[in-house]
Amino acid sequence: MCGIVGYIGSRDASEFLVEGLRRLEYRGYDSAGVAVIDRGAIRVCKTTGRVDALHGRLLSEPLPGHAGIGHTRWATHGPANDANAHPHVGGLGEVAVVHNGVIENYAGLRQQLEGAGFVFRSETDSEVIAHLIASCLDTQAATDAARANGAGLRRDVHASLVTAVRMALAQLRGTYGLAILFRDHPDVMIAARLGSPLVVGVGPQEHFVASDALPLAGYTDKIVYLADHQLAIVTATSLRITHRELGAVKPSVEVLQVDAGDRTLNGFDHFMLKEIHEQPESIRNAMRGRLDVENATATFGGLNLTPQQLSSVRRIILTGCGTSWHAGLLGEYLIEEWARIPVEVEYASELRYRNPPVDANTLVFAISQSGETADTLGAIREMKRTGHRTLAICNVVASSIAQEADGGIFLHAGPEIGVASTKAYTAQCMTLAMLALYFARMRHLGFEAGRRIIDDFQQLPDKLGQALQTSDQVRYVAEKYQHARNFLYLGRQYNFPTALEGALKLKEISYVHAEGYPAAEMKHGPIALVDQQTPSVFIVPRGFVYDKVMANLEEVKARGGPVIAVVQEGDRRAAQVADDVIEVPSISESLQPLINVVPLQLLAYHAALLRDCDVDKPRNLAKSVTVE
Ligand code: M6R
Questions:
Q1: Residues 16-50: tens digit of each pLDDT
Q2: Residues 164-175: pLDDT tens digits?
Q3: Average pLDDT over residues 143-169
């Protein structure tokens, strides 16, 4: 789950490679490196840590050259160190490779190659690809030489490279997005894809390779998406694509639809904080053009389904990972409550290998901020394979999931850079709420009820803005409990997903253990954790289950556990029992989770700062999880 880039043309390759890697750092930031062909040699610069560190090195030791590849790593095989950083060089320096994916049979291949005299310098699975290609280049060169001598033929050099690469790829089991440089052929680069996304950018007299479209923005607006088993043979002036079985494929050049987006901090200390504060605006953007006040419903342009198909939906599956899965849980409550359609929320990683009975009237929605999450992509592919319609709820427009689904809805939340998802979560919840209204109004929900829901939707941005004002109070709470090693997050019904999301935020950026639970389930086990050092964060808005959650809150207090309560403004009762109270603005019960999550995002943020953690790039994580 790494980011790869490549360049061939007349620019200084390193310049594009470094900028491209910066834009791909959301895929991993354990190490970064580039390889450039310079005066007949492949020269490599790589380092543990971020692209900034690589850039620093390149400033002191520039790598000039017009053909190069680069990589930003999320470690799978072998720790994050310089040796394991990509690019990896194969043979005696004749090829360099950057790889995104996992080679499952690398151990056997490595043994075989070591037996044949190849010297390994890293613990990665990827290095076998470099040596394997070098070995196949040798074999192919010998075959070419024999043929040429026998028949007096002139060698087609690029065809020989392709044959050698194909020979190597045929021996790999697993997934790859690859960019390959050849020392003795500086005019050509080969890119190959199986299971890991890869694109080629087409410019006048130059070509770019990247894991996704983002690095290309501002360099070219012409893009070719490679498919599995395709291989691109790229020179400065030409692009040829071949498929393992189909042979030559005509490149389908599309117009690039992304720009690099606003990637500045705009005065905030961290992207996460900026993105938390952008939520009133991102919610407005998610709603823009989608509220049909006249008909008291929502409208969506890209579902690509007829009204007949939509009204025959009898079951919905929502699938995703992490925060996106949490948004799905809230979607389940809303769709079932308003539209009365049965919903199941599935972890994509489970759905992809299960074989659930899914009938023709079931719609599958994949929820993903990045649109690149490998498990979510795997799940919709599996659903498509079995003939089901799949729709995407994505933020990144040109992403793989958005491309592969039959239709969908974009979040329009703008680029989310912080690894911890914040504004994408609330935009996903908002989108699912609109979807619930849409399905409900196609069925039994009356005009007046629809109008009331729309009124609530329209109040959300301002109320989210008011919830942001809890930040100082939340910082005080974070300071008070900064030495706690465990937290419980408890909520019920619409706010059970909020509890899960609050706990995930704290875990991932402050490295403090936190468990999210339905409040009433606590007494079936987790209550054993309650002691004076374990704060419980209760999400306890007024409404249907208020008294019940308050009872759970009292149970924790009775056992000496400190309680932080997120309540609606003016709630005196909770204030009397809880140790700390965070008041947020009130909205209808079903939309309250979108407001309640804001102080929880801020709590995680302040806790992470107090612990001196890297808020935007927490350890061991990546923004986009592109491996299984
Ligand atoms: O891009 P996706 O929404 O598909 O990502 C899914 C999860 O990896 C993601 O939500 C992850 O849990 C976040 N780091 C949570 O903040």
A1: 999 999 999 888 899 999 999 999 999 999 999 99
A2: 999 999 999 999
A3: 81
CA distances from 621 to 188, 509, 511 (A): 34, 9, 11
Q: How confident is residue 261, by pLDDT bands cut at 50, 70 and 90?
A: low
**Among 146, 123, 137, 17, residue whose Cα is nearest residue 71:** 17
Nearest to 128 by CA among 89, 100, 162: 89
> Is the bond leading into 87 cis (omega within 30 degrees of zero)?
yes
Do 420 and 604 form a contact (C-beta atoms < 8 A)? yes
Indicate the pLDDT class of residue 623, thresholds 50, 70 and 90: confident
Does 380 score more than 90 pLDDT? yes
Mutate to test the pocket of ligand 1, among 323, 394, 501 (most ligand atoms within 8 A of CB): 323
Which H helix or E strand runs over 450?
helix 447-467
Q: How far apart, in whole angstroms, are the C-alpha atoms of residue 458 and residue 338?
A: 18
Measured in Å, residue 326 CA sits from the centre of ligand 1 at 10
Tokens 């793989």 belong to residue:
400
**Which residue bears the tokens 């020269």?**
43
Answer yes or no: is pLDDT of 119 > 60.
yes
Could you tell me if 282 and 601 are in contact, meaning their C-beta atoms sit under 8 angstroms apart?
Answer: no
Ligand 1 atom with minimal separation from the 370 CA: 1
Ligand 1 proximal residues by C-beta, below 6 Å: 320-324, 368-370, 373, 376, 419-421, 504, 508, 624-625
Look at residue 214 in the predicted model and tell me its pLDDT.
86
Structural domain boundaries in the chain: 3-262, 266-445, 469-615
The answer to whether the CB of 419 falls within 8 A of the CB of 322 is no
CATH code given to domain 469-615: 3.40.50.10490
Domains 3-262 and 469-615 share a fold: no
The pLDDT of residue 260 is above 70:
no
* Both structure tokens of 284: 């407005």
CB 572 within 8 A of CB 587: no
pLDDT at 161 over 90: yes
pLDDT at res. 174: 94
The DSSP secondary structure of 381-423, one letter per residue, reads HHHHHTT--EEEEES-TT-HHHHHSSEEEE-------SSS-SH
Mean of per-residue pLDDT scores for the chain: 94
Give the global pTM: 0.86
Alpha-carbon gap, residue 235 to 191, rounded angstroms:
11
Nearest atom, ligand 1, residue 621 CA: 14
Q: Report helix, strand or coil for 467.
A: helix
Ligand 1 atom closest to Cα of residue 419: 14
- Amino acid present at 485: R
Q: 3-262 belongs to which homologous superfamily?
A: Aminohydrolase, N-terminal nucleophile (Ntn) domain (3.60.20.10)
Quickly list DSSP for 193-251. EEBS--EEEEETTEEEEESSSGGGTTT-SEEEE--TTEEEEE-SS-EEEEETTTEEE--
Locate 295 and state its tokens.
């008909």
Determine how many CB atoms are found less than 10 A away from the CB of residue 171: 16
Q: To which CATH superfamily is domain 266-445 assigned?
A: Glucose-6-phosphate isomerase like protein; domain 1 (3.40.50.10490)
